[in-house]
Design a protein that fits this description.
Layout lengths: L3 E5 L4 H9 L6 E6 L2 H11 L3 E3 L5 H8 L4 E4 L4 H15 L2 E4 L4 H8 L2 H6 L3 E3 L7 H13 L5 E9 L5 H10 L4 E5 L2 E5 L5 E6 L2 E7 L4 H9 L3 E7 L2 H7 L2 H8 L2 H12 L7 H6 L1 E9 L5 E8 L2 H17 L6 E2 L2 H5 L11 E2 L2
Parallel strand pairs: 1-2, 1-4, 2-3, 4-5, 5-6, 6-15, 7-12
Antiparallel strand pairs: 7-13, 8-9, 10-11, 11-12, 13-14, 14-16
Helix pairs in contact: 1-14, 3-4, 5-9, 7-9, 8-12
Length: 350
């Protein structure tokens, strides 16, 4: 069928949102995951086809991919799952999409650009909240100030929450610090080594630096050599992080990470439908050139999970209609700075 694609990790929190929303975009996902217990009940509820595949079962994965043109990979942590999926996509000539947010995974997938072009497929990680809205802001600012040398991007979740998958991915990175792009190169930094207050109309919100995916993708999209990414946080957290040099080693131990993951799994799988309806995301960016000229932009958009469901399906739909560019790509570079405005509840703040 022309509207089918493989949705791997369909039983996860975000995967379920995508599966339930797919019909709105006239798409039919083939639900896929590691266990029948997780996939079959959802497939029966939504009346969708499904397949049970372990990513390490290369033969079965390739057989499933041969039935579709696109895979939307939603099973993280992507540092553990991207390799198997991209390898199978290259073998079968299937377009690769994921909802990754890990800088190292973006950099890893970028190395498959030549092979993807040889196979006539597109490799586009980060088709969700990370990095669609920030990538669109980055390109908008680059278009406003073509000679920009520095870029700052920030996002703030208002009344939002975390899914198990997001929280566990974060837990697997805890204690590793942050990063920025400096003179074109990715440089390790302490987490929250810079902070600032941002004005969103009547709201003044505090943000600090984190290693968001745009450290990789915004550079690819814009060519800007110096990039910092920020997120909203309580100011007192920065005071705690001043002492991270003393405890990061402990946070990196398997013992501590397993304790954190156990606590995460004991909580609800993610924000409720009601929580998501009450939540929104604020995204801000600023580009500067060597002369000190500055341009800024900001938007309000859906909560991160709802946005991911809509943006990933819009991009799947575009690919199935023949709208794609082969090789490694970023969302805004292929679909333009206004891609974010194709999603519901997105509007400019400045």
């Amino acid at each position: 069928m022309q509207n089918q694609f493989l949705l791997y990790g369909a039983n996860g929190y975000t995967g379920q949102l995508i599966a339930k929303l797919a019909a709105k975009y006239n798409l039919q996902p083939i639900l896929a995951g590691r266990t029948e217990e997780a996939i079959k009940p959802m497939a029966e509820e939504l009346q969708l086809p499904y397949v049970v595949i372990d990513l390490n079962d290369t033969e079965k994965l390739e057989t499933a991919l041969q039935q579709v043109k696109v895979v939307l990979h939603c099973a993280g942590p992507f540092c553990q799952t991207a390799k198997q999926m991209i390898t199978a996509c290259l073998k079968t000539g299937v377009h690769y999409l994921d909802i990754n947010g890990d800088v190292s995974v973006f950099e890893y997938l970028k190395t498959f650009d030549t092979k993807a072009k040889e196979k006539n497929i597109m490799v586009m990680p980060g088709v969700g909240f990370d990095v669609v809205p920030t990538d669109c802001i980055a390109l908008q600012l680059k278009n406003k100030l073509p000679n920009a040398t520095h870029l700052k991007l920030a996002f703030i979740s208002v009344n939002g929450g975390l899914s198990h998958g997001t929280a566990i991915t974060m837990a697997s990175k805890i204690g590793e610090g942050g990063c920025v792009r400096e003179n074109g190169m990715i440089k390790r930094t302490p987490l929250g080594h810079k902070w600032m207050w941002l004005n969103f109309g009547e709201q003044k919100l505090f943000v600090m630096t984190i290693p968001w995916g745009d450290i990789s993708t915004a550079h690819f999209t814009t060519g800007i050599l110096n990039i910092e990414t920020y997120t909203g946080i309580k100011p007192k957290i920065v005071n705690i992080l001043k002492f991270q040099w003393a405890f990061n080693w402990l946070l990196r131990t398997r013992f501590i990470r397993n304790i954190i993951k156990k606590k995460i799994k004991a909580k609800p799988t993610g924000p409720s439908d009601e929580q998501r309806l009450k939540s929104k995301s604020l995204v801000w960016g600023e580009a500067t050139n060597l002369a000190g000229e500055k341009v800024t932009a900001s938007i309000s958009c859906l909560d991160g999970y709802s946005l991911t469901a809509h943006s990933s399906l819009i991009i799947v739909q575009k690919i199935l209609m023949g709208n794609f560019k082969i090789g490694y790509q970023t969302p805004a570079l292929v679909y333009g700075e206004n891609l974010i405005f194709e999603l519901p509840k997105t509007h400019k703040l400045s």
